[in-house]
Design a protein that fits this description.
Blueprint (H helix, E strand, L loop, with lengths): L39 H22 L3 H24 L9 H7 L6 H15 L4 H10 L2 H21 L2
Helix pairs in contact: 1-2, 1-6, 2-3, 2-4, 2-6
Length: 164
């Protein structure tokens, strides 16, 4: 039986909703009707973000920790690109630097959010090379990988709240 990622309460099968942020009970489910986002380009990016964070959780369950962190980066990138699209009325550049993208989106990030994005940037590139993969795996615990997913999920929800 799965547990709500927020309150850790056991979830019944019909209640075990995963909208890209991990299994969540109805009380803690981030309610947003994606069809309410009128700009289809903004909606595209944020929907893709939720798909990718869901994939990150799936990979973590399969013990694919680095791949999970890579998808957490990808999901965060798409969430920021939804805000770049909204705030600049243009298609985001084909770059992957989360700090650079957040500057393009003119986001006012907290220090914690900046730290998260900087940390996630390392998983976009470093995890692809054998020596770097081993370094990351040896210095990052399972609990830390889980925390990466939680913080990325929270960041995506924050980005979703910024959509007008």
């Amino acid at each position: 039986m799965s547990k709500c990622r927020v309150c850790q309460r056991d979830l019944r099968t019909q209640e075990s909703v995963d909208r890209g942020v991990g299994p969540t009970c109805a009380k803690h489910l981030p309610h947003i009707d994606m069809t309410a986002i009128r700009d289809t380009k903004v909606r595209y990016w944020i929907q893709e973000s939720y798909e990718d964070i869901s994939t990150a959780y799936f990979l973590m369950k399969g013990n694919k920790k680095l791949e999970s962190a890579f998808f957490a980066h990808l999901a965060s990138e798409k969430a920021v690109k939804s805000l770049v699209t909204q705030n600049t009325q243009s298609i985001p550049q084909k770059i992957h630097d989360l700090i650079g993208l957040s500057q393009q989106a003119q986001l006012s990030l907290s220090v914690e959010q900046q730290d998260l994005l900087s940390m996630l940037n390392g998983y976009e590139i470093e995890e692809r090379y054998p020596v770097e993969r081993q370094k990351i795996l040896s210095r990052t615990t399972d609990a830390q990988f889980g925390e990466i997913l939680e913080k990325a999920s929270e960041f995506i929800q924050w980005c979703t709240q910024q959509i007008r």
